[in-house]
Structures are given as C-alpha cells and as structure tokens.
C-alpha cells in the first residue's frame, strides 16, 4: 500500500493553506454537565493539586475539595539545587491560596486519617467526615523504616534522607555546610521502586557543585542499589569534566545497617564505610492512607486502571502520583501532573456516563549538573493493551555541545516555573 | 512527486475535512484537550510559555505549527527536547494540536 511519509503530508497540507481552516473552525469549550458532583482530593502535591485545578477546567460545575494539612508545599523538584546552593528554600516553596482562589477549590487544612469507601466518606483528624461522589488519593510516598537496621523516622533527624523536601532538605544542607574540607559524603539509593529514580545522580552532582567551591578536597560516595543507570554515560562524562576525582559511583551496593553514632554504614557486600555526612534514602511504599483504605497490593503500591486511575480495589476512588502503579512511568512530579489530567478526564467522563478517550502521558526529568549545565530525560507514554507503555522520548543526546547543555539548564528553570504554575496556580 | 501529492489530496484531505466537521470535533474535544494539557507541563497552563519556553497559544497558524513540528521531527529545527517529543506524536495527534493551538485562548 502507498504510504506518503510524514514529511510529504505535513509539507503538502501546509501548502494547501489549511491554516485558514483553523481560523473558521471554533474549538468548543468543554461544557458543564455534572453540576454539584462532589470531588474530594487527598494530598496537595503535584498530583492532587493539578487534579483539583484540571477538574475545574474540565467541568466548571463540580464541587471540588482539597484536603492538605500543610500550609505550603515544598517540592522535591529542584531541591537538589537548593543543596547545591543554586537556590534558596523559597524557590521550591509554594502556597495554596492562588490554587484555591483562581480555581474555586475548597481547601481543608487538615489530615485525612481514614476513608470509608462503603459510605463514601473521608474522616479527618478532628473526626469530621467529608462526603464524596469521587475521591482522588494522591498521598505521595511513605518510607519502609524496618528495612535498614538502625534507621528509623527518629534517626532521620540525625541522618537525613531528604527524599521529602522541607526540613530534611535544610538538615542535609546544614550538615554539608558544617562539614570540614576533606570530608566524605555518602549518598545511598534505596532498593525497590522509589520516587524519582534519576534524582540521586543529580543529587551527587549538586553536592559536588557545592563542595567543589567550598570544600574542594571532599568526596562524594554514591552507593547505588542498581548496577547501572540509563544516563550513566552522560553523568560520568560530566562528572569527569567538572568534578574530576570527586564523585565515586559504586554500583550494586545498598546499605543494610546504619550506626548513626559512629557515622558508619554497612553495605550488602559487608563493607563498613564512614561518612562525615550520610544521606541515606530508605526503601519506599505508597502513602499511609493508601494502606488504611485498602488501596495497596502486595507490592506496597496501588493498582489502578491505567487509563482513568480508578482503583482496582475500591469503587469511586482514584489513585494518582507516586502511590499508584502506572506502567512504565517513573514516580515523579511531572508524571503525577500528567496522570492528574487523565484522572480528571476519567472522573468527568464517568459522571456523564461516557467512555473517556485514551490519554497520553509525559514525564520530564532535568538533571542539573552545574549552574550552566543540565541534561534531560523525557518520557512519552500511551496506553497499549490497557497498560501505560513508553512509546517515545529518551535522554539528551550524548553528542550535544556545552552550548546545548547550557540551554537545557535555562529550560530546566523555565520548566520548573511552568510546572509549578500549572499545578499550584 | 506529483503522484504522491495527488494521492495525498485524494486520501488524506477528505479525512481531515471530515475530522473538522462539527460533530467529530465535539467528540474529539476532550481527547485533544488531554493531549494539549500535557504540553502545559513545560509550556505552562494554556501553553502561554514562561521564561525561555515560548508561548504557543494562538500565536501560530496550524500550518506553521505543523511545519515547526516537522522540523523538530527531522532535526531541521534546533531543539533540546522537542525533537524527542515530536517523535512521540502521530500524524493525527499533530493535526489535532495544530488546529487547537492555532485557536485557543481560554482567557490565558
């Protein structure tokens, strides 16, 4: 069969002046069909906040309530650049007032402590119950504290994970600042699925960025539970150039035991290593409320219909963001934002008794390596046999010039500006 | 080339015209909206751009949009990420986005 190439078609359609068609064809707005339906969202991160906003954009008639106990959201995105000293904490801190007022969203500043799926109610910490027609659960991650001997929530006040941004980020930053020149910083990645798999390499870069200026005799030891990583060639090349001899990457090594008093870690291979600063990132699972509501499976994450994000365990509950099992997608703020939009479309379609169109998804990672140099990883995903499959995307080219790497850094900051506005405004 | 172009006119154009007829448009609204809202991850809400990332809301004709995306796809346009993204989009998706972005404002 004859198939003209995309270039032929696009060039030819262009030459026909089809653009003028667009001028006379109006693009209809989505209409309100579900007046008064009560949608409640638990969790105001990139998933929950974006879902609240896009539900409003897709249907002006809904009643939308967001339950989030924190006054402000502090994003993990760009928190590594705070560790590196590129930005202050304010840069990664976002309030909820604009989100609520711009999009007519009711904010409940309280903790959702449980869900009653049979009665369709959310229970708050003051025992008040909130009714819903559809519930979106976007609680992010929780840590599996029993996996590393000697490491628990309390000890994390001395040995930070900094894998939820905020006080933990400040703690790690202050430990780096008070470390002597010539010290060793140990970063350890977790086993199992975890939030932002490419982020440990950016973290090592940003810590090295800080050390190379202030404490150039220091070292970063990155203990990686994986035996390789997809951007390894890009990072290794950049590290050798910018931080020669400073970052040592050890693949296939994870921490089994911490001695917080001695500042030592024991690895799977039996080595005992001493760090002046230890950044120990523990294994992870879905946020607590996902467990109490019966939304998780044996993996510790939440299975969902990968088109609408409806829970496969509970009716009228959707799970998005890091807590859900979303096929090939990484656990990431951008992934949560993308899933939030499909979930919002799934809810309005369900309310009006329609089958929703197949969504596409994207996630975006920028890895900031120094002030003028960044790389990116793009994921483009579509539904294939009911599962989210990566169909395009990939890493920055290995052959790109330093000029392009610098442009990527400029775009990284613009991207952060865009995605936070798209989520919290 | 003439043969190719004639075939394009005969095979592709009627389909495209059909897809912009009003009922087909209406069915397609949510699909296109969901597709375009992924662009907002970098281009911002309503794709008005921010800092160095360009505004693509109502600033290009559908023709220019397709020409630009074609350039990203084939490497004729200077890109950091758009080359990788253009390769993820089908011809139908590109056409939908071209008409959508030529038109939208959504009050910015």
How would you describe this structure to a colleague?
The complex is a heterodimer of chains A (425) and B (108). The model of chain A is unreliable at 6-28 (pLDDT under 50). Chain A starts with 5 loop residues before the first helix and ends with a helix. In chain A, the strands form 8 sheets. Chain A has a 5-stranded parallel beta sheet with strand order 5-2-1-9-20, with helices on one face. In chain A, 30% of the residues lie in helices and 26% in strands. Chain A contains 11 helices and 24 strands. In chain A, a hairpin with a 4-residue loop joins strand 7 (121-124) and strand 8 (129-131). The longest helix of chain A has 23 residues, at 402-424. Chain B has 108 residues and is mostly helical. In chain B, 66% of the residues lie in helices and 0% in strands. Chain B starts with a helix and ends in a 5-residue tail after the last helix. Mean pLDDT of chain B is 82; it is low at 5-11 and 17-26. The chains are: A alpha/beta (425), B mainly alpha (108). Chains A and B meet through helix 1, helix 2, helix 3, helix 10 and strand 22 of A and helix 1, helix 2, helix 3 and helix 5 of B.
């Amino acid at each position: 069969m004859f198939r003209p190439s995309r270039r032929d078609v696009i060039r030819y359609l262009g030459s026909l002046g089809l653009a003028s068609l667009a001028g006379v064809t109006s693009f209809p707005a989505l209409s309100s069909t579900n007046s008064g339906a009560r949608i409640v969202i638990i969790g105001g991160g990139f998933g929950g906040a974006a879902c609240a906003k896009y539900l409003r954009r897709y249907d002006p008639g809904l009643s939308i309530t967001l339950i989030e106990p924190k006054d402000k959201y502090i994003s993990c995105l760009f928190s590594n650049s705070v560790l590196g000293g590129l930005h202050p904490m304010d840069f990664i801190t976002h309030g909820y007032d604009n989100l609520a007022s711009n999009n007519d969203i009711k904010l409940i500043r309280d903790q959702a402590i449980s869900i009653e799926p049979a009665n369709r109610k959310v229970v708050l910490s003051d025992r008040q119950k909130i009714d819903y027609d559809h519930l979106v659960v976007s609680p992010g991650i929780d840590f599996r504290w029993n996996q590393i001997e000697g490491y628990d929530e309390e000890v994390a006040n001395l040995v930070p994970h900094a894998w939820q941004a905020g006080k933990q980020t400040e703690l790690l930053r202050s430990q780096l600042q008070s470390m002597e020149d010539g010290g060793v910083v140990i970063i350890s990645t977790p086993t199992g699925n975890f939030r932002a798999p490419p982020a440990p390499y950016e973290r090592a870069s940003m810590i090295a960025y800080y050390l190379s200026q202030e404490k150039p005799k220091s070292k970063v030891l990155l203990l990686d539970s994986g035996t390789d990583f997809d951007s390894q060639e890009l990072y290794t090349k950049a590290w050798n150039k910018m931080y020669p001899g400073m970052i040592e990457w050890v693949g296939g090594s994870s921490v089994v035991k911490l001695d917080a008093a001695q500042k030592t870690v024991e690895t799977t291979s039996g080595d005992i290593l001493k760090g002046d600063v230890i950044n120990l990132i523990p294994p992870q699972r879905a946020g607590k409320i996902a467990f109490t509501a019966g939304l998780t499976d044996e993996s510790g994450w939440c299975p969902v219909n990968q088109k609408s994000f409806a829970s496969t365990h509970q009716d009228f509950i959707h799970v998005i963001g890091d807590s859900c099992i979303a096929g090939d997608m990484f656990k990431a703020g951008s992934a949560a934002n993308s899933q939030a939009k499909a979930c919002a479309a799934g809810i309005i379609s369900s309310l009006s008794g329609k089958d929703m169109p197949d969504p596409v998804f994207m996630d975006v990672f920028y890895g900031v390596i120094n002030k003028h140099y960044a790389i990116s990883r793009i994921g483009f995903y579509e539904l294939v046999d009911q599962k989210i499959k990566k169909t395009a995307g990939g890493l920055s080219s290995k052959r790109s010039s330093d000029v392009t790497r610098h442009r990527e850094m400029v775009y990284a900051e613009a991207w952060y500006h865009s995605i936070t506005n798209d989520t919290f405004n | 080339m003439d043969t190719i172009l004639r075939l394009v006119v005969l095979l592709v154009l009627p389909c495209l015209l059909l897809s912009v007829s009003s009922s087909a448009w209406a069915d397609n609204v949510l699909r296109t909206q969901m597709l375009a809202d992924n662009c907002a991850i970098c281009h911002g809400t309503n794709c008005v751009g921010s800092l160095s990332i360009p505004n693509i809301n109502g600033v290009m004709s559908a023709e220019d949009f397709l020409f630009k995306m074609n350039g990203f796809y084939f490497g004729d346009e200077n890109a950091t990420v758009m080359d990788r993204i253009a390769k993820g989009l089908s011809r139908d998706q590109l056409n939908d986005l071209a008409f959508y972005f030529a038109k939208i404002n959504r009050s910015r």
